[in-house]
């Protein structure tokens, strides 16, 4: 019985560690290098989105309508879009856009695609970012734009 | 709407009333304790009985939703009155789907066990325990994460393929 208890404890400890590793990625910008396309499509333009892209960056958020972290992400990103010039926030319902969800490999919500002014997807954020993480993402867009060959 | 932010469709869809997100987590904690019991007792009749109880609780949870489950009622009657109001409410549908995920895992485990498959009960209880534990301890909802994947694999309406 004691050995069993130990095994149960080990199982829970391993699960907790795995969860902790997994959720560390939440809110962080991934895949910003232009050399490494990861999830298929790289281009998401204003024609598809139906709105003009931000001169600095566009946050394209994929949400589900029952997802609380999506509400939080929308509040953060909408706030930045209102405060910072050239930053646009677009929120799409993943269920309403199965085509886009498939094209960009959207597996969970919220997923935010970070799109530069030319319509290139320069990175993505999985899970709701904090304001600070979103600001870091904007800085990363600026860096990747500077580093791009002309 | 000329501001720089656009959200479409989400606010206009009818929403069921939000629930206290701590309710499903408390329920998951109870479930986790029962599943630990199964793991400690397995194999054997006693373990099967406890597992059958877990299955029954999931059946109630799936049909009545998380607040309607036995654990949900216990939470509302005894725990919630002692707590401050929740900071935010959550949509009840993902926790309800999570109950379905739990039900499927435990039913399969119990069925395989009754069919004589060795370790089936313990393995199924182990999987369900991990999900229940992560939900109770960290608020991680495996069923909620799976929801979108399922929708992608089997779109119901708005099939704009």
What does this structure look like?
- A five-stranded mixed sheet of chain A has the order 1-5-4-2-3, with helices on one face.
- Chain A is 43% helix and 18% strand.
- With 150 residues, chain A is of the alpha+beta class.
- Chain B contains six helices and one strand.
- In chain B, helix 1 (22-41) runs antiparallel to helix 5 (120-138), helix 2 crosses helix 3 and helix 4 packs across helix 6.
- The mean pLDDT of chain B is 84.
- Helices cover 66% and strands 2% of the residues of chain B.
The residue ranges of chain A in which pLDDT falls below 50 over 5 or more consecutive positions are: none
Number of helices of chain B: 6
What is the CATH top level name of chain A? Alpha Beta
Q: Which structural category fits the helices and strands of chain A? A: alpha+beta
Our Rg estimate of chain A from Cα atoms comes to 18 Å
What descriptors fit this protein?
heterodimer; A: 150 residues; alpha+beta; Glutaredoxin; 5-stranded mixed β-sheet; 5 helices; B: 161 residues; mainly alpha; 6 helices; globular
What is this structure's SSE topology?
The complex is a heterodimer of chains A (150) and B (161).
Chain A lengths: L1 H22 L5 E2 L15 H4 L7 E7 L4 H16 L3 E7 L4 H6 L7 E5 L5 E6 L4 H17 L3
Chain B lengths: L4 E3 L14 H20 L3 H24 L1 H10 L13 H22 L5 H19 L3 H12 L8
Report a brief summary of the structure:
Chain A is α+β, with helices and mostly antiparallel strands and 150 residues long.
